[in-house]
Design goal:
Chains A, B: It comes from Schumannella luteola. Two copies of one chain form a homodimer. Chain A has three domains: 20-90 and 139-235 and 335-426, FAD/NAD(P)-binding domain, CATH 3.50.50; 99-137 and 239-331, D-Amino Acid Oxidase, subunit A, domain 2 (D-Amino Acid Oxidase, Chain A, domain 2, 2-Layer Sandwich), CATH 3.30.9; 468-653, 3-Layer(aba) Sandwich (Glutaredoxin). Helices cover 22% and strands 24% of the residues of chain A. The first copy, chain A, is built from 14 helices and 29 strands. In chain A, strands 1, 2, 8, 9, 10, 11 and 19 form a seven-stranded mixed sheet that branches. In chain A, strands 6-5-14-15-16-13-17 form a seven-stranded mixed sheet. A seven-stranded mixed sheet of chain A has the order 22-21-27-24-23-28-29, with helices on one face. In chain A, helix 1 runs parallel beside helix 8 and helix 2 (79-87) crosses helix 3 (91-97). The radius of gyration of chain A is 26 Å and the shape is globular. Chain A starts with 31 loop residues before the first strand and ends in a 13-residue tail after the last helix. The complex binds flavin-adenine dinucleotide (FAD) (2 copies). One flavin-adenine dinucleotide binds next to helix 1, strand 2, strand 9, strand 17 and helix 8 of chain A.
Chain lengths: 665, 665
């Protein structure tokens, strides 16, 4: 954590100084905003948290509920989401209070006594160690709390406007030639809800309009924003229903603290998810497919019926439920919309999208693969940094088209995966091709539910894989996977990726070549690249950083030397890796790294992996490599150390020059 | 983290439900309190935090300052203190914002150009890996903030009463035979200070009295509490002075982010301590011994003089100070009082101590070994749990005599160590026996400054070492050193010791014997001990747990099986290790552990140590062992698995039976 560089910070360094629109932010929702987010679920809250790092942008988030979510809904947190929480500074805290999945148990009818279930398999949840972060279970409400805290403590100081309901919106269109679009082209109609804790006194039912430059619809499966732009969820007509209950109970079922898929001989099935705190657990009890029009009947299922059914499936074990924290009949189908914004396919490139939909508003699917909250968060993060960049004048509006293009594919993959997984889980044992088909699928596809299958195709912001062989462990289009290094200035073990936060910056990691790696070897290639980065007018760092801003304000440029930290002489490191910033022009010493030392230093941050060689772990070529990483931590490009022309070209097609016109705020 | 067992907790689980005196705690300091703590430095705040876990006890903490400490004072946090923070739930958070010491550099005059300094050594700070926690540097103010948060969120809901100054106290004495001591024998006089943020309006200068059962003097080096009980700091008459500055600066000194001891050819010396946030650092610039009466002259040293002196010592490097966050002339001698309570040596056993002094009030020493805040916290923790136990009727008053007996020895050791270390650091190179004497001492004594040399002698609460051979890695009288295990119920990797919090409970760890360790071996010895613990009237768990309280409310009893977790059948584990608690009688599944599995599961909590065998790491005999641990996490006793008589005897001499009379609250 870096702070004090603008002067001493006496209190919690997680509370960043208010800046821009965060200074004296009005309590009351203004009439004109840059971004209006509708809905404070996972998609909306992460978007607010990310935009809170862009204090040049006025962002408001409205929510129909009178206050925070208290209970219920999703609880599965993929390792990819925990990586994301790291970027928002709360991975450690939420891990400490969450349930951590280590194994998954499969229970089936006993072959000899099919009325009884027996454990048939116990695979590890993450046998390959796909992330240094764990797979967690914790209530959605707590995830939202942490994002809310982040948004409130970030420079733009965003807090949700509760008790405001979205009714509809209209996007202004340019009808005549030469006519200009209004500055705030989206007009949104809202209504104060009855139970709103309105600081301005009772205004229940009263309507108002707000004009916005952009709207993010994060208003869930029944999205009004989606409807207002004429998009539809399409897909299988049948829903699948589950009785969901979060309960405190006494049981003799031995795996009650393990994630279990349980199938009984009657075809009943339970997905058991232990929950945070050591006592609570969730059960999804299968209620089967809901025929069209059959919703009401299924929804009438009582908690007593759910508990009775669970007991039946668990035979010979019993479940004595003592307290029901939450229960619901969760009914959902596999549905998806074809595009996640308001621009028709045929108008892409000629019209700028103004309204985006995210999360459940664009895709719904079963809860069985534990995906809903996770994918929704990645949607929200994806659109939020892009809006920040466009609105602060860093990037061209074309960036906004990449949101739907990237995320719609991911949603389609998710739905395909989930359909296969749900079908397998609902199948009777005798219907499976192979008795271990379910377990095999779980193990084979482990990377998917962990959230790491996302692989963006080449686009404006994802380069080609031409130079992939220079860094095979950083696949272009996939998330940047951290690895251990040693920081030179203080000799501490670090996870390279954990230094990256959700600060909206692009990152350029420079991995030294082997010539510069020996203890006495020179570092000519790194030095030349370092000089180019600060001196060439073509360098993205020069071209796209405003002249009056800190050198590291738009690009976070790091170097990893291929030698032990004691053999790196800071005096010879190019200044781009030791940038000076803030009112005192202090040197930032946290961008220069070296090989992980063999000596262990107690960490508390998963750092007790002495001796790991990041160059070997991530397949860095002896020639070295430049790895460009997006603000949402996906690898955008891999280039050779002398690939300055390609590096310049990559950013030139996307970013707006800052050196002639000074930044907007 | 365990919660939800009294029903669903929707918000932050770190906020424990208010209980006892924490429900409707009065804002105004009452006239009668059980414990009055004077001073909210590290000693006082940890005492308040610990006592906040005893909601049967009315504890108040008064502080002369108008509010929280903002800046300055100590910053060195030993690994032992970070272990302590773990018990109070904030090790992870404070580590994330702190500077972490990995190495210490030694700089000396260059042999050929003595006007220039050169680096002569760079030893690791903790080469032996004495703890899984790191050695940190962070401002004392933040440590106090975290303890304050803990105290405010714990059941007794303690917050400091700011703006109240201690003036004096009197302890009532029994003069006539048969006369009873008043219930609140200590009368304390206080004054409202001028700048107090008093909720009751301006009362500056007005005095009041409070009566207390016990007083903890945590009021620092000039302690009025110490004076009021007639104790004196004695020791060398001369103070040593240092110019201390916390600054933001630009420098070409390459080790500016490393802890350094720097000696120049003129005899000047600097102790450089990098600080949290990546930019700030502290320098202690030696100002030499202060002759008696010379204080005023030394204190007149200006910040400009300190900076000039630092530049002189750092030659050929320069230091361009941009901002001074804090500076002070810190002047201190090696002083100690002979006893830490109000009972004269000759009255121990006949009078109960009523007033205790802690921290700087009883011992002062240089800042060079970074001990002040650390030792003070252990003082405060030591007395606080003891007062909690006595006041809640768990233990006899004799427990209180152990405070001074234990801590005075520790302070004496500290002062001896610090004197040696300061002398070495202040010595001119040519005066050293051996040119590497300083570095050698640093490496040789590493366990001391890390806080792990504390080794309590046998007493009422520290048993004999007769059975030490059964668990050589848990020395009786030293802190319980955690090691990795695998939790049986959920298969997750855990650090055994991290489950222990500052909840005031004694802990009984049962390490299985090798007979019960094979994959099919029986567990006769563990089963017999388990049965005795819940069934025998001699069992401390039976005798000293109130009949209407949860089985695990006074003793936290855990088992570690000597086999993989997949080979432990929970159905056969004795109920004392799976106790039922709370209104729903839910089973606690977090006390049953097994050998650490070979398979790594991502942790984020220093848990990536697959395959570590706790039995081998901690030298557990094939016959198994019982390890008894105090509420402040020191090993109290090691016993054989059939040592039930000794176990019963150990607690019988200390604790008060609870089964006839129900607990006090
Ligand atoms: C009742 C319920 C139960 C669920 N149970 C499970 C489960 O058991 N397991 C699982 O994995 N997933 C479950 N889900 C799905 C999971 O919660 C979602 O996948 C996830 O929350 C998607 O995030 P989101 O931000 O897209 O939408 P949501 O979390 O649905 O958030 C949408 C937000 O928008 C607000 N909103 C909606 N309309 C308006 C409006 N017109 N004006 C203003 N605000 C509006 C809503 O109040 C809500 O806060 C459940 C969802 C719901 C609603
Ligand atoms: C100015 C200063 C600078 C220091 N600098 C360093 C340093 O550079 N490095 C280092 O390692 N250590 C330093 N120390 C020492 C270190 O801070 C102590 O070792 C540590 O704080 C001891 O903790 P404590 O709780 O015993 O006492 P303290 O932290 O001193 O706390 C005592 C508290 O009691 C309060 N108090 C005092 N008298 C009264 C009264 N009559 N009524 C009510 N409240 C009262 C004080 O306001 C204070 O909050 C410094 C101490 C001071 C005071």
């Amino acid at each position: 954590m870096q702070f004090h560089h603008h002067g001493y910070v006496s209190g919690d360094p997680r509370v960043l100084p208010a800046e821009g629109v965060g200074v004296d932010r009005p309590t009351e929702l203004p009439d004109e905003v840059d971004v209006l987010i509708v809905g404070s679920g996972p998609a909306g809250m992460i978007a607010a948290a990310q935009l809170a790092r862009f204090p040049g942008v006025t962002t408001r988030i409205i929510e129909r509920r009178p206050g925070r979510l208290a209970i219920g809904q999703a609880d599965g947190i993929q390792a990819r989401s925990v990586e994301t929480f790291q970027a928002f500074g709360f991975a450690g805290r939420i891990t400490a209070e969450a349930y951590q999945i280590s194994e998954m148990c499969f229970w089936k009818p006993d072959v000899e006594h099919p009325e009884n279930i027996v454990r048939t398999a116990r695979p590890l949840d993450d046998p390959a160690g796909v992330s240094e972060f764990p797979h967690l279970i914790v209530n959605q409400a707590r995830v939202l709390d942490y994002f809310a805290e982040y948004a409130a403590n970030a420079p733009a100081r965003i807090t949700p406007d509760y008790g405001l309901e979205f009714l509809g919106l209209e996007v202004a269109e340019v009808t005549g030639a030469g006519e200009a679009l209004p500055e705030f082209p989206v007009t949104v109609t809202l209504r104060h809800t009855t139970d709103s804790p309105d600081p301005a006194g009772p205004r229940e039912g009263s309507e108002r309009t707000v004009r916005a430059k952009y709207v993010i619809g994060a208003d869930g499966a029944r999205s009004g924003v989606r409807e207002s732009i004429g998009r539809k969820l399409t897909g299988a007509s049948a829903n699948h229903a589950w009785g969901v209950m979060d309960v405190l109970a006494v049981t003799d079922f031995p795996d009650i603290r393990l994630k279990c898929a349980i199938q009984s001989h009657t075809g009943g099935s339970i997905l058991l998810i232990p929950r945070e705190g050591g006592h609570l657990f969730r059960m999804y009890v299968d209620l089967g497919e809901v025929p069209e029009g059959g919703s009401a009947a299924v929804r009438a299922t009582t908690i007593e019926q759910i508990i009775a059914k669970a007991n039946e499936i668990l035979t010979p074990y019993t479940l004595d439920v003592k307290d029901v924290a939450w229960h619901s009949v969760y009914e959902v189908g596999h549905r998806l919309t074809d595009k996640f914004d308001d621009v028709a396919h045929e108008h892409v490139g000629t019209r700028t999208p103004r309204v985006f939909i995210t999360g459940d508003a664009c895709h719904t699917h079963s809860a069985k693969a534990g995906q809903g909250m996770n994918v929704s968060m990645q949607d929200g993060w994806n659109i939020a940094w892009k809006l920040g960049h466009v609105l602060e004048g860093r990037a061209s509006e074309a960036l906004l088209d990449t949101y739907s293009a990237e995320r719609q594919v991911i949603a389609q993959n998710l739905i395909d995966f989930d359909r296969e997984w749900s079908t397998l889980m609902a199948a009777k044992p005798e219907d499976l091709k192979d008795p271990t088909e379910l377990e095999d699928f779980y193990v084979k596809t482990a990377e998917f539910p962990a959230g790491f299958m996302t692989h963006y195709a080449p686009s404006l912001i994802t380069g080609s894989a031409d130079h992939q062989s220079l860094a095979t462990g950083f696949p272009v289009g996939k998330r940047f996977r951290s690895a251990p290094v040693q920081r030179v200035a203080d000799g501490t073990p670090q996870h390279l990726g954990h230094h990256a936060t959700a600060d909206g910056r692009w990152r350029i990691y420079v991995f030294a070549d082997a010539a510069g790696g020996g203890s006495t070897g020179d570092t000519a290639a790194v030095d030349a690249l370092g000089a180019w980065l600060t001196e060439s007018p073509d360098s993205p760092v020069v071209a796209f950083t405003p002249a009056d801003a800190d050198l590291d304000s738009r690009f976070d440029v790091k170097v990893i030397y291929r030698r032990p930290h004691t053999e790196v002489d800071l005096a010879t490191v190019p200044p781009v890796f030791l940038p000076r910033s803030g009112p005192f022009g202090l040197i930032d010493y946290e961008k220069v790294h070296a090989l992980r030392s063999d000596a262990g230093v107690a960490g508390g941050d998963g750092l007790s992996e002495p001796g790991v060689d990041i160059f070997a772990e991530r397949g860095i070529d002896p020639a070295g490599a430049i790895v460009v990483v997006r603000p949402d931590h996906y690898v955008a490009q891999v280039l050779p150390l002398d690939g300055t022309a390609e590096l310049a070209a990559f950013f030139a097609r996307l970013m707006l020059p800052q050196r002639e016109a000074v930044a907007a705020y």
